[in-house]
Specification:
alpha/beta; Rossmann fold; 2 domains; eight-stranded mixed beta sheet; five-stranded parallel beta sheet; 30% helix
Length: 400
């Protein structure tokens, strides 16, 4: 790895940042690059470590370099704390000569607060009504503030994963002059699904059906569907997959009615004896997904596999997703706490995590080191509990 690219984290012991740095070939430990100092009054002051004997080049230790800051929400620090650390770490890099700073934040902070109480507060794909404006009355337009603060601190580019908000995407793209990269994990999911026995023909199954749980998820689910169809065609795995699009009507915070969308190529009648992969960007409560999966099971689905990028583990999520309608769960570690078996709870019996540090390293290598091809194949590592029946396949090298 060229010394012109330096990878650090918001904390010295962030395993996600450490792994990305390792897969990029960085020889130095993050703790040898930055001192994460906190004063007695609790204020944070990072320092990029330099030659203490060099009294001539103060403020130039990062001259001409690209500093990549990895920020994931895990450990003792809150999102607010990590955001402030990012601002100060970025400022330290720029004040010491860094040519550019790249923030890699797989689950972009404040994305849920993607609009405010006024018409100019956010760009959405639907017509905002009085009720929607009132929902944000009295609140700040937080995603815009976050983008402004990142830019003010010196961040030049932002890399995230599967951000669901059109408003945030447009806002960040403008703020960073087109240097906002919203990475799609569609190819990762298709690779895992088609390279392993999940999609292999087996007794009782009549092929695969990819399902969008609502219209908002449809664009990404179509992307996954096309990737899966392309790969199954090349691998000659059974019949071609089909696509099912559901729609939901929310009548309360946790009250949702779900039915087949008029735009769906398939209907619930096509579900019988099929393996169904339900794909979404995030899960916060799991209640809507469970309703969708129950409908699929009632329609005769053979197996229902829930694939989700951002997994917010909570007691409510674990309780809801333990429902028998969901046979397996595949997620990523954009929120690294999901790797903790205690955070998985009883879900560890049907949960499999695709660790994406190799994928992030591949992207950074191609973008900043000029690599013509990915360094790591497959671009993920499978993490799974021994309580999961698929654990034996992983242990035997059958996965990934």
């Amino acid at each position: 790895m060229t010394p012109n690219v330096v990878v650090v984290g918001c904390v010295s012991d962030d395993p996600f940042a450490i792994d990305v740095a390792h897969f990029l070939g960085q020889q130095w430990e993050i703790s040898d690059l930055v001192s994460y100092k906190q004063f007695a009054n609790s204020e944070f002051c990072p320092r990029f470590i330099s030659d203490e004997q060099d009294l001539i080049h103060s403020g130039d230790s990062l001259a001409g370099r690209t500093v990549v800051i990895i920020s994931t929400c895990c450990g003792e620090h809150t999102r607010n704390s990590r955001a402030m650390r990012t601002f100060l770490l970025t400022r330290a890099a720029k004040d010491n000569g860094a040519a550019r700073v790249v923030l890699v934040e797989p689950d972009l902070f404040y994305s849920a607060q993607d609009r405010g109480p006024r018409p100019e507060h956010g760009e959405v794909s639907f017509g905002r009504e009085a009720r929607d404006y009132k929902k944000f009355d009295g609140q700040p337009f937080s995603s815009r503030l976050y983008a402004d603060l990142l830019a003010t601190s010196g961040v030049d580019e932002v890399v995230t994963v599967h951000n669901h908000s059109i408003s945030v995407q447009r806002l960040f793209d403008r703020q960073f002059g087109g240097r906002f990269f919203n990475l799609s994990p569609a190819s990762l999911y298709a690779h895992y699904l088609t390279q392993n026995e999940i999609l292999r023909p087996h007794p009782g199954s009549e092929g695969l059906l990819v399902c969008a749980p609502d219209k908002g998820a449809t664009p990404f689910v179509r992307e996954v569907f096309e990737e899966v169809r392309s790969r199954t065609g090349r691998l000659l795995i059974g019949a071609e997959p089909d696509l099912l699009i559901m729609s939901k009507e929310r009548s309360g915070e946790r009250s949702v009615a779900i039915e087949t969308s008029p735009d769906s190529p398939c209907t619930l009648a096509d579900v019988k004896h099929r393996d169904v992969v339900v794909v979404d960007d995030m899960v916060r409560t799991g209640s809507t997904i469970v309703k969708c999966c129950r409908l699929l099971k009632e329609a005769g689905a053979n197996r229902v596999i829930f694939v989700v990028t951002h997994f917010y583990s909570s007691d409510e999520v674990k309780e809801n997703l333990s429902d028998r309608s969901i046979d397996e769960i595949i997620t990523t570690n954009t929120l690294p706490t999901i790797l903790n078996r205690d955070m998985q709870g009883r879900l560890r019996r049907k949960m499999l995590v695709l660790k994406i540090e190799k994928w992030i390293a591949n992207v950074l290598h191609q973008e900043y080191l000029g690599g013509p091809a990915p360094l790591h194949r497959p671009p993920y590592t499978v993490d799974i509990s021994s309580k999961n029946p698929r654990w034996r396949d992983v242990r035997g090298g059958g996965l990934g």
